[in-house]
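Recall the central idea of this unit: under ordinary conditions, the amino acid sequence of a chain determines the structure it adopts. In this exercise we apply that idea directly, starting from the sequence alone.
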Amino acid sequence: MKDRFEIGQPFETTVVAVAGDTVFIDLSAKSEGLVDAADFTDADGNVTVKEGDKVTVYFTGDVRGEMHFTAKLAGQKADSSMLENAFKNQIPVEGSVTGEIKGGFEVKIGSTRAFCPYSQMGFKDKKEPSYYIGRTMTFVVTEYKNDGKNLIVSNRKIGESEYANKLGSLANQITEGAVLEGTVESLEKFGAFVNVLGFRALLPISEMSLDRVSDPADVVKEGQKITVKVLKADWKNERVSVSLKALIADPWENAESQFPIGTKIDGKIVRIADFGVFVNLASGIDGLVHISELEGVKAGTNLKKVYSVGQSMSVVVEKVDAEAKRISLKPASSAEQDTTAASYLSSQKDDGETYNPFAAFFAK
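Accordingly, the structure predicted from this sequence is:
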């Protein structure tokens, strides 16, 4: 069995079990390897792996017939031969930042001292130098010279690797078309940023509602839990855009039955163009009153001087093209006017004679 591995050899496998201080890994031969659980603990001392997780470990040796592996080198494991293997195989090593020296930091790995340049300490969230002093951190050996007497290490490469692995995992979950839960982190003029599985995705203002939105705060609030659909995932540039609108049923599917030709509606103007005005008929559905249909308006007239957004307008449906998402309208008398007229007509006598207030006066 031990002939299968060389000291420092990387091995990708699966966690079989976590018991006490030991993580058991599958060796694909009806046997298990052992890893110290400390290799997989976070800053709070919690074990970060569980049964079934994929891990990459490195062979450290056969102890009384047991195959031992490590996820990172530290303490007694970090002798000169293991550090050389760590350098050759890019095995993570654990070291303590003992002080700040010219150009960077002094790091102690086991009994060996190494140097970490300022540029190689930290990754995205860089801190002041004093923050790192006294901390135990994970590094990669980038230079190994003079039998380990001259070691240069990098913590940044660890951060880059962890970040790349995290992105890879997210890329398998945050895929185009996926419907996921998220939390609104912040609002901007152009939309909102939503935390989806720990990644900051953009919810454009145009994707917030079927209706036009002028202020994102009218739709979502910071801290609000929302369900979104992934529109685009560009992992090369680390950009993800999501939508609320995509999860709302398309109102145009029933537009023809909802707005038969001749339907009269009191709506509001939502947009003014050179060629006419758009009137909102229902959520997500606007119709166009062409300039040629507007009374007292000539071609070339600046319609923004005649009409205003939010202004009420009564219209009649002339044509519906649900596939092209277009409805043609023309102006009409308002519903209030129609009600008044209907009331007046109902006041006629049953014999057909129209009520005449002047005749009634002279008949007295």
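Residues 322 and 333 are 25 Å apart (CA to CA).
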